[in-house]
Amino acid sequence: MDTTDTLPPPEPTRLRARRQADGRTALRLLAAHPMETGQRIDADGRRVPAWIIQTLTLRLRGRTVLRWHCGTAVAQNPYLELTLRDAQVGDTIEVDWVDSLGRRRSDRTTVA
Q1: Which residues form the domain of 104?
Q2: Nearest CA among 24, 32, 6 for reference residue 97
Q3: Could you tell me the mean pLDDT of each successive run of 10 residues in the chain, 112 residues long?
């Protein structure tokens, strides 16, 4: 049996995109993920295996605007805050991530 079979499905990535008065769009992103470093020891004295988001991709209107390669130094439930210059109200922003167990999550929001 695959270890991913016993895990709950990944929670939705929380996204909020708001157009600001200066014409830029503020994007906030929260990815629910434990981000285990592989260095923690559990109650039984065994090392907890590494389990991290490896790559996070952000697309605006289908065009990749960010590709983030995460490492073990990233905290649990990574939070990103970005400013986009050419996002317009109604545009679609999509985020996809893949973790070290091969699990994937895709979510989208619309610029408000």
Answers
A1: 3-110
A2: 32
A3: 69 97 97 95 95 97 96 95 96 97 96 98
